[in-house]
Amino acid sequence: MDINLELYKVFYYVATTLSFSEASRQLFISQSAVSQSIKSLEKKLNHSLFIRSTKKVLLTPEGEMLLSHVAPAIRMLSEGETLLSSENMLKGQLRIGASDTICRYFLIDYFRRFHREYPDVRIKVTNSTSIGCVDLLENGQVDFIVCNSPNSRLNPRFLTKTVREFTDVFVGDPKAFSINEEAVSLEMLLDYPILMLSPRSTTSEYLHEIFEGEGLHLLPEVELSSNDLLIDLARIGLGIACVPDYMLKKQDELFQVKLKKPLPKRQLIIAHQDNLPLSQAAERFLEYF
Fold it and tell me: How many angstroms separate the CA atoms of 46 and 26, rounded?
């Protein structure tokens, strides 16, 4: 089948951004040209590749299957172009998916080191929850992700590596809550307003599972998408916040609640697709771990 490679390139950008306008911006062509290219490719393949609506664009099952083959080919071509033009200097783009918490409190030092060693590589970070990051990885929008584990969205098709263990802790303002120095049970903790991450997060899944395992119903007072905001609310006495221990500063005025039964440790992991080659930039970054 004689199909111009440019049509597959346009398809790749629309499929990975799920936006005709964003694809046109990245390709430096008009949105009309993008639409015509997709229509031409669909006609040649005799399959619909996208479900279009006024609000969003989605891949059809046929589109998802095609993307799984087109994505590695486009990336390998891009990598080849980069290697030929680099004059032995690492260039290109490093695409990472991670939550804002993981970026700020874990990855930032690695970003600083990588940028110092490879200044010509553009670092593109896409923020999402650890669950949402898996979607980014599946859609080919990032080279790899750094996320929390356990993670209900991860499956055996991904290669994973543990890079850090951490413990979730409950913290609050000592002036607002008179929890004494003695260890408390999870049941006693429910007497206080709990501040935690929103339901579509690995932390929420994890905490609800822990409390249910003790026969308890966890009903948080506040559910947010930002751990930093949870800490801010805890500092003004709105409740007891559950956050990763690596976020806390040594001189922080917040007190840490002592639990009779400490929460099981979780992990930060790196995950990437087993069947897709990593870019040279991604391989260099992963060497840090």
Answer: 27
